[in-house]
Design brief:
9 helices; alpha+beta; 10 strands; two-stranded antiparallel ribbon; 6-stranded antiparallel beta sheet; 2 domains
Length: about 260
């Protein structure tokens, strides 16, 4: 008589890491908490979300889990990412027209955004050699400020004007209104140059972006009616928060290249 065969109980297969209930709950928890921060305004439109590395440390989760949570927010239209820029709360970028001379504040007001400025530095200083030659003076008023739209920083701006034109200005004056309104001269026009760059540590700190992230760097020289340079300004814009719009006319036999295009050597 053959011996009776013993039947061993079959153990259920261990769940794969992708299907672990704890992992599923973890990415949803991360997505829920980030969604609440965006919805409440603690992370405003255009504001940076915590980096992936920071979220990994905060939640003790894997990078795969963190990215899955961020992709949930992207699918909902609440967040987006750019290479080298990081993750940020989705929002309508600021559009600035290059077709006419004007101020950032005026264009923001026209688009229904609330402009705000914070002066970071105000001083009368010797003019650097390049600006001494450009502005025709030995001393300048240098003002560094942070521009915000609806409470979100979108530009770090440094402005230089000849000391003789800015001698009567106070820190409160330049925080309250623009040099276009303060200067006792009629403005005739401006030349603006825009190029790509990377955020310095100092710029990243005030703009709320990662050091080395993409920025737009703009240099503008404004002249009076006689053609004399009276304002020189440098602007730094986080690349994900600003768009420059140019309207191009189409005269006969026009080139398809934007006017003013210059290759960097």
């Amino acid at each position: 008589m053959a011996p009776e065969r013993q039947i061993r109980p079959v153990r259920p297969a261990a769940p794969s890491p992708q299907n672990e209930p704890g992992r599923q709950i973890r990415y949803r928890t991360i997505a829920d908490e980030l969604r609440e921060e965006v919805a409440s305004g603690r992370i405003p439109a255009g504001g940076m979300l915590p980096s992936e590395s920071e979220l990994v440390r905060r939640y003790g989760a894997s990078r795969v889990t963190v990215r899955k949570a961020l992709e949930v927010l992207r699918a909902e239209g609440l967040a987006d990412a750019r290479q080298g820029f990081g993750w940020y709360a989705s929002g309508r970028p600021l559009q600035q027209s290059l077709g006419r001379l004007g101020t950032i504040e005026a264009q923001l007001a026209e688009s229904g955004r609330r402009p705000e400025r914070r002066v970071l530095d105000f001083a009368f200083v010797p003019a650097p050699a390049r600006l001494a030659a450009l502005l025709g003076c030995d001393e300048v008023l240098r003002v560094s400020r942070l521009n915000l739209a609806d409470g979100v920083p979108f530009a770090r701006v440094t402005v230089w004007v000849p000391a003789e034109l800015g001698s009567g200005f106070s820190r409160d004056d330049v925080e309250r209104t623009t040099f276009h309104d303060l200067l006792a001269v009629r403005l005739g026009g401006a030349v603006q140059t825009i190029g790509a760059g990377a955020a310095t540590k100092a710029d990243a700190e005030v703009l709320g972006v990662e050091p080395g992230s993409p920025v737009l760097r703009c240099e503008r020289t404004t002249v009076d009616e006689s053609g004399r340079p009276v304002i020189y300004a440098e602007h730094v814009f986080p690349a994900g928060r600003t768009e420059f719009v140019v309207e191009l006319s189409a005269p006969p036999a026009a080139s398809m290249a934007p006017s003013g295009l210059r290759l960097v050597e």
